[in-house]
Amino acid sequence: MPRVLMDPLKDSSSTGSFPAEKMNLTNCSSNYGDIENKLLPALYTITFIIGFVGNAWGLKLLLQKWQKLGNINVFVLNLGLANVLYLFTIPFLMVYYFSGRKWIFGDIFCKMTRFCFNVNLYCSIGFLTCISVYRYLAIVHPLRMMGRLTVTHSVLISVLVWLLVSVQSMPDIFFPKSVNGTEKCFHSTSREKTEDYLTYSLVWTTTGFCIPLLVTLGCYGHVTFVLCRRNTIEKTLRQKCVKFLFILILLFSVCYIPYHVFRNLSLFSRIQSKQNICVWWDKHVFTGHQISRGLVCLNSALNPLVYLQMTEMFQKGFCQVRINDRRGGRWGKCSLYLRIHGSLCP
Q1: What own/partner pairs with CB < 8 Å and gap ≥ 24 does 315-321 have?
Q2: Do 82 and 120 form a contact (C-beta atoms < 8 A)?
Q3: What is the pLDDT of residues 64-79, one digit of tens each?
Q4: Angle at which helices 282-318 and 235-274 pack, to 10 degrees?
Q5: CATH T-level assignment (fold) for domain 25-321
Q6: CA-CA to 180 of 20 to 30 Å: which in 199, 257, 343, 344?
Q7: Mean of the pLDDT values across residues 224-236?
Q8: Handedness of CA 33, 37, 38, 43 (dihedral sign)
Q9: Higher model confidence: residue 256 or residue 298?
Q10: Rounded-to-integer distance, Cα 127 and Cα 222, Å
C-alpha cells in the first residue's frame, strides 16, 4: 500500500471521497490549495456584491410591504438578518484566501467568523422551513389555523430558531482551527480531530439539514398538489405559483444538498488519508466542495428577494380562492393568506 503524504496544514475543506480504488503516490499526494485560493476568493467576491445589493433591496421591499405580507415577514426579516451577519465576515475571508490562506486576525476571530457562517447557513435553513410550514398551513388548513398564527408566535418561533442553531453550532468553536500556531483558519478542524468532527458533522447534517429538508419538501409538495387541484385560482397564476414552488425546491436542493454531501465526503477522505489510503476522484470531490461552499453562500444572499417576490405572487393568487363558511358563509371571497393572519381581501 503506497504511503500518501498529506499536507497537515491543508485547509479543512480538503479532499474527500470513498476508497473504491487506490491511486498511485504521484496522483494522490497532490496539493489542491491552488484550487481553493483561486476559486473561493472569486465566489466570495461575487457573493458579497450580490448579497449586499440583494439584501439591501430585500429589506427595503420588506419595510415597504410590511403590513401586506403578514406574519411571514418576521421570518423573512430574520432571514435577511442572518444573511447580513454573514456578509460582514466575507471581507475577512476574502483577505484570507487572496493572501494564500494566511489568517492575520487571530484565532478567536477566526472561530467567530466560522461560527457566523454556520449560524447563517442553518438559520437560513430553519427560517426557510418555517416559511414553508406557514405556507402549508395557510393553503391546506386555513380555517383550522385562523387566528392561531399570530405575530407573537412568529417572533417566539424565530427566537427559538436562533437559539437552537446557536446551540447546534457551538461545538464547532471548540474544535481547533489552526495547527501549532500557524496562520490558518480551517473551515472545519485540524487533521488530528477529523474523526470527531466527522461524527459531529453527520449529526449536524441530520438535525440541521436533513430533517428541515424533508419538512420543506413535504410542505411544498402538498401545497403544489392543492394548488393544482383548485379551480378557483386563474390557470395562468396557478401555473406561475406551481412553477415558482418548483424553483424554490430546486434552489434549496441544489445549493444545500451538495454542500453537506461534499463536506462529509471531504472529512471522510481526510480520515482515509491518515490511514495512507487515497481515492482516484479525490480532486473532483475537493473541487466540488469549494463550489458548493460558494453556492450555499450565494443562495443565502438571494433568499430574501426570492421569498418576497413569492409572497406577493401568492397574495394575488390566494385572493381568488373562495372559502365557504359552513356557519353562513360570512367570510365569502377571501384570501387564504390574509385569512390566516386575521384580515380579509379588499
Answers
A1: 315/68, 315/69, 316/237, 317/227, 317/233, 317/234, 317/237, 317/238, 317/240, 317/241, 318/138, 318/139, 318/233, 319/345, 320/232, 320/233, 320/234, 320/237, 321/230, 321/232, 321/233
A2: yes
A3: 767 665 677 888 888 8
A4: 160
A5: Rhopdopsin 7-helix transmembrane proteins (1.20.1070)
A6: 199
A7: 73
A8: positive
A9: 256
A10: 19
Distance CA 257, CA 251 (A): 10
Q: Is the pLDDT of residue 290 over 90?
A: no
Average of pLDDT values for 274-292? 78
Kindly state the cell numbers that stand for 270.
Answer: 481526510
Using CA atoms of 72, 170, 275, 209 in order, give the dihedral in degrees to the nearest 10: -10
Cβ pair 233, 320 in contact under 8 A: yes
Query: Structure pTM?
Result: 0.79
Of residues 293 and 327, the one with the higher pLDDT is: 293
Can you give the pLDDT at residue 204?
Answer: 94
In whole angstroms, what is the distance from residue 169 CA to residue 167 CA?
A: 5
Q: Mind listing the pLDDT tens digit for each residue in 30-56? A: 556 666 777 788 888 888 888 888 778
Q: Are 40 and 290 in contact (CB under 8 A)?
A: yes
